[in-house]
Amino acid sequence: MNDECGMQLGTFCWVELMTRDTAAAKEFYTKLVGWQAQEQDVGPMKYTMFTPPGGQGPVAGMMSMDDPQFRGIPPHWMPYIAVANVDQSAVRCKELGGKVKMSPTDIPNIGRFCVIEDPTGAVISLFSGPAGA
């Protein structure tokens, strides 16, 4: 989730795998589609970046669902849509009949995101880069 993603407002800018078995998922996707996996230490957790064969940069990320906040949520892929302002978009989501499942939250040195549910029940994330980017 950075400038290399070519973030254009209103487009999908990142996708993230949330799973309880990151080792099995890493093995599966590296063998299935040839992704290179690079682990990064991001504070209290490890985060895996996936880069396609011959790719210039990562196209997806993966994190573990170990925290209690994920209880009852199955493993899943989460797409992110680029918006100009996550906080304003979260307010607008509610005005349009959606729900904010996870309030706008900072990702240190990366940007800001929130998780929303549209009026049909579909869940997605919204993302904006660092202020002034």
Summarize the structure.
This protein is α+β, with helices and mostly antiparallel strands and 133 residues long. The chain is built from 2 helices and 8 strands.
Secondary structure blueprint with pairings:
Blueprint: E1 12-19, H1 22-33, E2 36-42, E3 45-51, E4 60-64, E5 76-82, H2 86-95, E6 99-107, E7 111-117, E8 123-128
Parallel strand pairs: 1-4, 5-8
Antiparallel strand pairs: 1-5, 2-3, 3-4, 6-7, 7-8
| Major sheet | 8 strands, mixed
Which CATH architecture is right?
A: Roll
Number of helices: 2
Sheet with the most strands: spatial strand order:
2-3-4-1-5-8-7-6
The fraction of residues assigned to DSSP E strands is: 35-45%
CATH class: Alpha Beta
Number of domains: 1
Task: Supply the helix-strand structural class.
Answer: alpha+beta
Structure characterization notes:
With 133 residues, this protein is of the alpha+beta class. It has a single domain (3-128), classed as 2,3-Dihydroxybiphenyl 1,2-Dioxygenase, domain 1, CATH 3.10.180. Helix content is 17%, strand content 42%. The chain is built from 2 helices and 8 strands. It has helices at 22-33, 86-95, and strands at 12-19, 36-42, 45-51, 60-64, 76-82, 99-107, 111-117, 123-128. Strands 2-3-4-1-5-8-7-6 form an 8-stranded mixed β-sheet, covered by helices on one side. It is globular, with a radius of gyration of 15 Å.
Keywords:
single chain, 133 residues, alpha+beta, 2,3-Dihydroxybiphenyl 1,2-Dioxygenase, domain 1, 2 helices, 8 strands, 42% strand, globular, disordered N terminus
